[in-house]
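WARN  no MSA supplied for this record, continuing single-sequence
INFO  ligand: glutamine
INFO  echoing inputs
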Amino acid sequence: MSKFIFVVGGVMSGVGKGTATASIGKILQSKGYRVTAIKIDPYINVDAGTMNPVEHGEVFVTDDGDETDQDIGTYERFLDMSVYKDNYMTTGRVYQAVIERERNLGYGGHCVEVVPHVPEEVINRIKKAAEKAKADFTLIEVGGTVGEYQNVLFLEAARIMHMTDPKAVLTILVSYLPIPSKIGEMKTKPTQQAAQLLNAAGIQPDIILCRSERPLDEPRKTKISMFCSVAKEDVISAPDVDSVYEVPINFEKENISERILSKFGLKAKVKDLKDWRVLTLKIKNLKTEVKIGIIGKYFTTGDFVLSDAYISVIESVKHAAWYNNRKPNIFWLNSEEYEKNPTKLKELSEMDGIIIPGGFGSRGIEGKIAAIKYARENKIPYLGLCYGMQLAVVEFARHVCGLKDANTTEINPKTENPVIHIMPEQEKLLMDKRYGGTMRLGAYPCVLNDGTISREAYGTKSISERHRHRYEFNNDYRDRLMDKGLVLAGLSPDKRLVEIIELSKKNHPFFVGTQFHPEFKTRPLKPHPLFREFIKAGLKSRK
Ligand code: GLN
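INFO  complex generated
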């Protein structure tokens, strides 16, 4: 039977519950236990696929094709394992299941009520995910902040689970302690109130993780312990760090694993966070930079630029840069600027490599195509991810094959040269307005052709990578594009779908576009092979 650890947030959003959850998982894993992690997203949306990435962050795709919250990506990277559909739930998904069951007379004619039937469904899902993963520990991150309306039913599930089996359930409150600049002192009151709000939901936190700019000092530990009824050793200092991969190491300085295990009457079986300690030390000591430009639409809210929508791409660049002994320096480049002022494209020559990540719609597209042309002609390493691959095909068709109006039908449905077009099975879905969860999603196999950059990078012929798209390479143009030098490096096993395009190494140091999203499979100690080689090529061309 699994033990269950709920991770809930206090004071405000964005305090790093996802990283805290993943870090606790990592630590317990390093003590010899099997761990899994679940994310609860309190939105009505059935999945993250229909949520605005500016507000909600990246849509992370699992192997089994679920469109989930970016925290699932954090769990995969920290725990070095695939996390599946069962480990993600939203309010919408839970209600949908309850309503479906009611329609099938699954409640045997009883009145179906918000309580207990909704928390019961939540509990069933948690237990199912724990069982499937054969986990010793199941971490459950409850999205949102205590005291808000949206996550009450999930807290209710935590309360019921604890009441039913107190020895098997713990709650960790991740809180925030502000240091107002005019006062210059770390304040504990918001955390005290967060603990009270949690108490009002019938839950007593067992451990409080105190996020702040600086480490927590003794007087504040004492105060939080006293006012929140938590032992002083269970008040854990969690100051800001440069790299998220330091968080598990910092938590361990406060003996968090010993605290958690002893509450369950357990002991560490082994002790091993060594490889992570080595990595974080290495990161701290890297001096020489690698400059990577990521070209996208700017994701702004008011006066703030948020890069969360590209979190897996960022992590992939970091992991690959560290592997190549470089400090990553990422530049956010706005493709719309290149449309307004093409001379700005020159800034790309400063970069060691350029990435165009996934995207949808027409904003900034011509600027992206101009940037790809610049990278191709000036031999700057280029990595195109999904949309970045499709637009590389459009650019090649236009400027190398002379098909002047070549386009993707996503942008111009009437183009004479639809080099990228909608997948036949997708067309009907769009006509019927069936948008949610209907893209080509999840892991698909791909076969690599010998002698290509990709084949060499992966070191194997058969790979599996995750997809999220509706459009694809139009096979009517295969011959024309290949005649002019486009390399089809990876195809679906039935050869129907073009999954990777490249330029030959003879003509360009590194030019690769993937229809899939390799960024979803990077690991801090095992960078994705394409990112690894992309960075390596960038460093080589600089020399
Ligand atoms: N918009 C493109 C498609 O749907 C690319 C999607 C993506 O980049 N994830 O095919």
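The domain at 3-279 is CATH 3.40.50.300 (Rossmann fold).
INFO  checksum written, moving to next record
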